[in-house]
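#random but structural
TW: two for the price of one
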Amino acid sequence: MSAHPLTAYGWDEGFAESFAPYAADGLVPGRIVRVDRGRCDLVVADGDTTATVRGDTSLVTTGDPVRIMCTGDWAAVDPEQRYVRALLPRRTAFVRSTSSKRSEGQILAANVDHAVIAVPLTAELDLGRIERFLALAWESGATPLVVLTKADLVTDPTVLGHLVADTEGAAPGVLVVAVSAETGQGVDVLAAVLTGGTAVLLGPSGAGKSTLANALFGAEAQHVQTIRDRDGKGRHTTTTRNLLPLPQGGVLIDTPGLRGVGLWDAQSGVAQVFAEVEALAEECRFQDCGHVAEPGCAVLAAVESGVLPERRLSSYRKLVRENERLAARTDARLRAERRRDWKQKQALGRHMAERKRGPSTM
């Protein structure tokens, strides 16, 4: 039996099983490759091959920025009217908090296997920012890897080795690859890792994401702009999230540069990034140890002995506090929404009771 035309885009038996009820209604599966102003582009089967169609998403539009359709989603599509009727359950979702103070999440990519974090070597390494990206990546359910881009600009191999080692120290258990899209260094390694799955490319503007994407595609699939001369910062080359097939197999979602990387419900992600701190905390005298000045704190003892870098503990505390504050604000927002819904139901109940009684008589 020949493979399904959408297999190259990640279609498998699991998604087919989730789609089965919609197939019975005459709908067809499609993967969202781009979202734009209430409509989206989807790749669908067209005989033995695939085609890209424009779909109307008004039937699945929601005010929830986490549940809204996103690049990478699988959808049930009306083949005649081109309406997206439903979204299939997500396996993974990369979500960050919005820049507003409303404690809302924003989904960046769905059904992703690999989260590729691009870090440019044109500036000093921000290990705390890398840890923040990693926490979100682990929380999403995807496997993260860190790509140090523009490695050709670091001419001393010893210096480059130290940069890789420093990054590995902030990313335990995560593959770190130094890559140069100009010379091809590391591109083959990255391409091999991404073969056959769905990857999302994340990082700030100027990290060389689009240039790296072009190197992986072997063609200028994404338009590339040069770094601004005055401040070395990048323009937003990619303005939408686009899903494109890789020549070696698999697909890549390129994303716009991210200015803010706020945590969103990332407790387990933070624990994964700082697994060594979490392991040490198990040995503390008190279960609720804050690792500040408590007696018998195994974490502080590890810092004093040099086993645990102080920077790692400081970063851990910062992300834990941020995640707890966000959780508290989110809980408060949910309580407010529940009160509002309750009041609306009460008002509706009173209105229906008055209608049932009919007009009052004098």
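TW: number two ↓
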Amino acid sequence: MEQVLFTTLKTVSGKLLGIATLNAEKSLNALTLAMVRLLAQQLRQWQQHSQIAAVILEAKGDKAFCAGGDVRAIYYAQQCHPGSFTCEAERFFEEEYRLDYLIHTYGKPVLLWGDGIVMGGGLGLMMGASHRIVTERSRIAMPEVTIGLYPDVGASYFLRRLPGKTGLFLGLTAYNLNAADARYCGFANHFLASSDKQRLFDAMTTLNWGGNHTLNHQKLHDLLTMLAANCSEHSGNSRLKAHQSLLDELMSGELPQIVEKMQRLVSELTWLDKARNTMLSGSPLSWALAWEQAHLGKSLTLADCFRMELGWSLNCCAIGDFCEGVRALLVDKDRSPQWRYGKGQLAPPDVLAALLADPFSHDHPLADL
């Protein structure tokens, strides 16, 4: 069975809509290398096809658009190569980041139906799309701290552009955003009910699509705004917005200060208590990377961020907590990771320096972005 399905819809204008459907419902549509390759190949073809006016990214099932990357294959390959990263790891991360970059720079409108779980690699796809829709069932997160990674897939670029210290909070705690949070953070730019999907697709076929990408973007935006005005669901309230000042205070200062504040935190807010516990049980190496990421200069371009992230991700595989995190959460599923420097213990500066170092002595694999 194909892991990604591709179809086209005819429109009244004579143009076509390309639809890519993630088709791995049992694994919550987690991205495999095969899925990344199928998407990249078809999206490039549609990008060059003059009859394709816009692209839709969706998924089978009502539980998840995409719960992240299928990282178990990387884990198994790494078992034979401790201390260095494998070809399998390099291929997966390089091709995943190329796909994300392609969506960010696509030109034609890309609509992503972000219903259900959208996490990690799923958010990487979402953030590249021009029209990002969430529903009352959407749950969005960057949960990499739980597997010894850090928010990648372009998060070095987009997390730093969130309100206040929100990006660092999300990176450290794996907090699950609802639809209102996603709108507040800019992860989504439209809200519709989960039951509106077919109504949206039908309405898209009635638009007068043309050859001008800018006008096509505006036509789709106007349609989504109209549909949202008649939506039967409400996006709810944003906890992040309501407690922005508290989050900013918790996330201010150097990393040891932040860790200490979170360790001492006593809150009646159930969601904040859960976020605190997730952070404190996560990888301290991931904390360090998320903190460094939050303090990068804003002059870094999106391409720069993907190049940097490729090095960081491979270093996490070779000398970080990634393999142990994947083992504990996804392979043995004992949820008892043995982090390299212990639970809650910050790593020495030389270890962090090694994780941040560029591992490529030759030309960078993403030099052409």
